[in-house]
Amino acid sequence: MTEHENKKPKNDVYDLRSALALLKTLPGEYVETKVAVDPQAELSGVYRYVGAGGTCQRPTRKNGPAMVFHNIKGFNDISVAIGLNGSRRRVSEFLNCPPEKLGHLLKDSVQCPIPTVVVAPDKAPCREVIHLASDPDFDLRKLLPAPTNTEEDAGPYITMGLCYASDPDTHESDITIHRLCIQGRDELSMWLTPGRHIDAFRIKAEEQGQPLPISISIGVDPAIEVAACFEPPTTPLGFDELSIAGALRGRAVEMVQCITIDEKAIAHAEIVIEGVLLPNVRVREDQNTHTGKAMPEFPGYTGEAKEAIPVIKVTAVTHRHNPIWRTTLGPGEEHVNMAGIPTEASILALVERAMPGKLLNVFAHSAGGGKLLAVMQFKKSASTDEGRQRQAALLAFSAFPELKHVVLVDDDVDIFDSDDVLWAMQTRYQGDVDTVFIPGVRCHPLDPSQMPAYSPSILQQGMSCKTLFDCTVPFHLKSHFERSKFKEVEVKHFLPDFE
Ligand code: MN
Fold first, then answer.
1. What is the CATH number of the domain that holds 230?
2. Res 445: pLDDT
3. Ligand 1 mean position to 231 CA, how many Å?
4. Is 385 within a domain?
5. Low-confidence ranges of the chain (pLDDT < 70)
């Protein structure tokens, strides 16, 4: 039995509304506005200042509050929520776990998954209102206030759509957040990074000449949003990441059978889109704008519009009364937490299996959007541990294939404080002996430096030189690297309010 098993979160968060209710009780974690806002570039422009942080263009604010916009131009009775997972502190409140332990909590949750359960439609709040695409008045562009994040984007994007589909043969399911652009009254384009599991299902269905049913649930419990970001090998093909969300919440995620397709959706979602991925149909992502751009992505740059990507034919939209649309900016701390905490869990799990007790903690750093950079805190306790820290870094590259840089530090360095990590680099690192290059390895296609024009070792876009920066002290020199020892005191004696 693991440490976190059977511990129900003290905060009863099970959907977006209960998550927002919790934030309203915490000072500084929530703001809202009733001022009319244009979903076309303006909404994202506002939140960039209020709370994006992370990789977002400066000026921005790190650890700013989550925000709800109540008055969306062109839409009635629908509000938009952004930034719930935009600080590690908020995620720690949702999951009832100290911020620095979140990676460990997720690692344990993968080991004790709780499968989904199916509830009747009358127990599914997402079914309070139903719109069928067969209705001639049906138009996604009028129903969904999906923001266009910058003025040059290819269109309105669904950035927090939890896409759920199943293997046509084995019926095993997968949940992942994908980039979805509204292309017309009943069509979405879908960009799937190569290797994603729903793409494997889609390819299988396409080979059989069949459409693949897919549900897109928007506005859910933050535990689901974080769990959905797990990737292989931690969650191999066929592993339903919703069962990790069940473990995180201490109770199963409730699903409901869709109306127009043979698939399920998240019962407590604010909004559900039902549809099918069409076989052998492709669309140009920026066909309506011809800007060549897609939307802002996690590395802090706007992704290129794809030439030819799959199309979802939408068959229905269902939602709650007065639904809350959920969106995110692309770059920023929200992506860092959703992608990064599962990355930390994956690295912790694999290294722990290989060398128990050596890797104390990992931070999937904000600068890499939670994917490109990991800071690993390694404990050398004997001379035979020398070199094992680099072995741990190699395991990290295996645990999470999109990882590009690893910084290794000792157990006396605060991995969540970049100043302290860079201090270790200044005083415990010599570039010529402590840098290890691993060129020509597959990484993440959205890092713009990973293109052949950049380096002769990069043969294709998405390949990279992975690098580890070993900022740990060589074990036999340890006595030269003790930090100055200040006297232990009780500060509260002098400043009672000190925290
Ligand atoms: Mn998966």
1. 2.30.110.10
2. 85
3. 5
4. yes
5. 1-11
| CA 476 to ligand 1 center in whole angstroms | 43
Q: How far is the CA of 174 from the centre of ligand 1 (A)?
A: 5
- Token output for 24: 């309203």
Q: Each residue of 38-89: pLDDT tens digit?
A: 999 999 999 999 999 999 999 999 999 999 999 999 999 999 999 999 999 9
Q: What distance in Å separates the CA atoms of residue 126 and residue 482, rounded to the nearest whole number?
A: 57
**What are 49's two structure tokens?**
């200042």
Q: 400 alpha carbon to ligand 1 midpoint, in Å? A: 13
93 tagged catalytic: no
Asked if 255 and 372 sit in the same domain, the reply is no
Query: What is the number of domains present in the chain?
Result: 2
Which strands make up the sheet holding 254-257, listed edge to edge?
A: 117-118, 254-257, 264-266
Q: Measure 197 CA to ligand 1 centroid, in angstroms.
A: 5
Give yes or no: residues 281 and 401 share one domain.
Answer: no
In 3D, which of 403, 399, 395, 346 has the Cα closest to residue 374? 403
Q: Is there a single domain that holds both residue 317 and residue 404?
A: no
Contact 467, 439 (CB under 8 A): no
Is the overall model pTM greater than 0.90, yes or no?
A: yes
Which pLDDT score, from 0 to 100, does residue 12 have?
86
**What range does the domain containing 395 cover?**
355-481
Residue 473 within a domain: yes
In a domain, residue 431? The reply is: yes
Contact 11, 93 (CB under 8 A): yes
Pairing of strands 405-409, 463-470: parallel
Is residue 435 included in any domain, yes or no? yes
Q: 201 C-alpha to center of ligand 1: Å? A: 11
User: CA geometry: angle at 371 spanning 60 and 407, to 5°?
Assistant: 95
Q: Which of 225, 241, 297, 344 is catalytic?
A: 297
293 and 159 in a common domain: yes
